[in-house]
Amino acid sequence: MQGETIKEQLSFQAEAKQLLKLMIHSLYSNKEIFLRELISNASDAADKLRFEGLTDAALYESDSDLKIRISYDTNERTITISDNGIGMSRQEVIDHIGTIAKSGTREFFNSLTGDQVKDANLIGQFGVGFYSAFIIAEKVTLTTRRAGLTAEHGVRWESSGEGDYTLETVEKPNRGTEIILHLRKDEDEFLSGMRIRNVIRKYSDHITLPIVMKKEEWSQEEKQNKISDEDETINQANALWARPKSEITVEQYNEFYKHVGHDFEPPLAYVHARVEGKQDYTQLLYIPARAPFDLFDRERRHGIKLYVQRVFIMDDADKLLPNYLRFVRGVIDSNNLPLNVSREILQESKDIDSIRAGVIKKILGLIEDLSKNEDEEGKEKYKTFYREFGQVLKEGVGEDFANRERIAKLLRFVTTDSDSDEPLVSLDTYLQRMKDGQEKIYYVTADNLKAAKNSPHLEVFRKKGIEVLLLSDRVDEWLVSNLTEFEGKPLQSVAKGGLDLGNLEDEAEKEEREKETNALQNLTEKMKETLSEQVKDVRVTFRLTESPACLVADTYDMGGNLERLLKSAGQKIQHTKPILEINPHHPMVQRLNNEMENFEDWSHILFDQALLAEGGQLEDPAAFVKRLNELLLLKS
Q: What's this model's pTM, rounded to 2 decimal places?
């Protein structure tokens, strides 16, 4: 290599420093996982080389025999993990090792509790397996070179995990990555071939790449002809998903998930199936126990690895799964697709459309099985699933028309009848609990659950014992705009359009409504004139039993909550005036109808109160305070 060697000292990203300290303490009780994580990274590097090598065979540099090598040196007290995968450039080393957490960093550290078990789970969830090397190593030296004949030099990264690291350019004739762990005191247990082999077989037996070590056990005949550099493969080095299910243990399934999911926890559920016929493929799919921190970054893709005839093709094959199932991890191995399949081909492939439909069907079936499990453990699993992924699943109602009803059956909601024993209710359960004569599924949307529970629009529903869905997730407005009915029952917002309880009202109530509406006609017309800048109409309501007034959206207008959500997202929308409904039985309304004194101020007060009650913001808070103070002084 020509040119001057460049060596510089850099500092870790601030979060990385904190993570390094946590890593040692939180994961120390399960310290052998360092080897699993580093082997998993090496396997990923080989997969990436295979993928890029499909379009650029020169990347193999005449060395297509991919493998991972493990060695140890008792004198130097080191363990070395090396691979001949894709390798890294200088900038990639800085990006992937000097920096962690492309997104969600703050949320990650806010979630740390000080509880070693919980923190270990969070660290695994955050996908920072490389740092586990520092559990047993006082210093880590990483030497790497990016694949490609044009690569001029390698890069050496070294750190003691104290906050700084060095980078220098070095000569490295072969592509790939070598990691040397300089062990801490009292970690000599890992300077044993038997110990290392046991860890590999326990955690990494499923790795499709051969994991090799120098052979240490010899037969009598082999001893006579002993060759010092003879290798042996430690793992089975074949595709776990291609083996019969009867030969795979639950532990092996779990360890494979930890590899493909880059997770420290076992999965919540998994399904392994072979599909034969026009399309011939195998699927091994997992639902994690925890959501990743970037779950709601819809541009960030994860999870499904695509293989063709056991050959890795690509990570993150987004065409195989819809966005609302982006939390699923696993592999799909097809016997029908061409080996040179590209992302462009995937976009137009009918074969892929068929596989995608089958995968969706299988995953939804797996979630349905979770939801139907009636024993205590099963119920707890579905609660866990829905807590972690329920909001994402709601996106599917609008994205996957073919499975809309099926997805809707999996959704769970807090309602006005929820209790501590059954906090979440399915739509099927809601239908079973509907009152005689009820023809609609009622819901209210709000910024948060407390606001939904306290919405004035619920007053008459509580009085009549009618259950209402309380929707407070940001995705819920999207949900109800796409789920207009369920099992033939229309969904109806309690804050939109006129109140029509149908058969839940008797003729006497309807006659009383008409009578009181006529009696207050002059009042509503005058208030409409006074508030013409703020409201579309003013009318008498019977949805209120305690509050003096509320705001509702007209039948085909945008609701106040949706309007606020869109504005907060930076979207420019045309404001639609709400309808002010007044309670004819409330003393404030009755006084306003009888006295008409300070009429304009009282009308504005009623409007502003109604706006605040539904979670809106006053356009002129100072004017509201001024009016309120003046009216209070007049009353005193």
A: 0.73
